[in-house]
Amino acid sequence: MSKLALYGGAPVRTKPWVSKYMGSEELGEEEKARVLKVLEKKRIFRYFPAGLEDSECSALENEYKSFLNTKYALAVNSGTSALVCALVACGAGPGDEVIIPAYTWVATAAAVAMLGAVPVLCEIDESLTLDPQDFARCITPRTKAVIVVHMRGISAAMDEIMQIAKEHGIRVIEDAAQANGGVYKDRMLGSIGDAGCFSLQQAKVITTGEGGMLVTDSEELWQRAVLYHDGAGYQFRFSERKIPAFPGQNYRLTELQAALSLGQLEKMPSILAQTKSNKKKIVQGLKNQTKIKLAPVFGTDHDLGLSLIFYVENGEKARAAAEALTAEGIQAFQVYDGVSNDQHIYINWEFLVNKADPWGGHYPWSLTPEAEIAYDENTCPRTLELLNRAVQVHLNQMVTDEDIEDLLQAVDKVAAHLL
């Protein structure tokens, strides 16, 4: 085995690793034509006094309902807004507890706290998603809901989670921001729980820059979400409101954003077919590599193939492996190194660790001081330990067979020298 590039040897590859955004790379003439059409119509606000059926936002909602086979959909201005509206729809508010995984984007926790509910952290397992056994442990009489995050395009164990939630009367919100187009046992992610939330931010599989979508089969949950996403209740000019009024925010999506995203669901199958095929080839190529570990779900139909994550013996080796892979031309990261401020890991959520609100106090934790909820290294130690010995390489639909060969060669080279 040749000398590591880290120590002066020749690297496996000299060209940059493929690290572009996914959805925005697919933007083309179709999206351009749709946006120009909106400009020509001069209708950039969704809720004109008449003609809801002509709205680009309405068309996007219909696309999602058809794609996910849900009864209702609501276009909003971000994935965070979708989470907030889903929580309101499910009745989560001051003094309630909402269980979330310790590995997710910070917005999952922020959405809970913004509504006066208390985030309760749950361990993940090697799939990088919510550990069902720890979920059951986290439930208290104050638990109102659980947010299940399909992290890194990987389906959580929905059968087990749904059963536990049903037994305890807990609402299930799916955060599919990183798993748009994913499937769990023939059901689309986002359509399994009480409500599903999606992000259309630029880093996602399909995108409109900033935007989101909420889906549900419950008319009541949909109406509550609609009312909260638009304090003026514009949408109820076109449908009968069946719930009492309450104050809302302004999380409406614009017609330009909706037009940009329209039709992108048609591109998703080819994008994900490529990423899933790539991931399966990589997992197959690493199956005999005994110095790393892959979770059983990796490379299966429950994995969209948006990244490669493998586990090594300890954090020191993970740090060395990531540095060595990067030197070989494969940009890699130690998922949790205790230094970088990755906002996917709970210990880096400063407001949560300090239980801080925007006004210098400790709301909503001050509502239930007897709960004694802490957010430190002892809260979810298994998650931190797992991520500390995890190495990540970003993947996308532009990865070629040549890139995969370079990746496999680099992993074997680094494993032989360092692991």
Secondary structure topology:
Layout: H1 29-41, H2 56-68, E1 72-76, H3 79-89, E2 97-101, H4 107-114, E3 118-122, H5 132-138, E4 143-149, H6 158-168, E5 171-175, E6 183-184, E7 187-188, E8 195-199, E9 212-216, H7 219-229, H8 255-261, H9 268-286, E10 307-311, H10 315-327, E11 333-334, H11 350-353, H12 381-388, E12 390-394, H13 401-418
Parallel strand pairs: 2-3, 2-4, 4-5, 5-8
Antiparallel strand pairs: 1-9, 6-7, 8-9, 10-12, 11-12
Helix pairs in contact: 1-8, 2-8, 3-4, 3-7, 9-13, 10-13
What does this protein look like?
The chain is α/β, with parallel strands linked by helices and 419 residues long. The protein has 2 domains: 238 residues, 3-Layer(aba) Sandwich (Aspartate Aminotransferase, domain 2); 151 residues, Alpha-Beta Complex (Aspartate Aminotransferase, domain 1). It is 34% helix and 13% strand. The strands form 3 sheets. A 7-stranded mixed beta sheet has the order 1-9-8-5-4-2-3, sandwiched between helices. It has a 3-stranded antiparallel beta sheet with strand order 10-12-11. The chain has a two-stranded antiparallel ribbon with strand order 6-7. The longest helix is centred in the middle third of the chain and has 19 residues. It is globular and about 70 Å long. The two termini are 14 Å apart.
Short description:
The chain has 13 helices and twelve strands. With 419 residues, it is of the alpha/beta class.
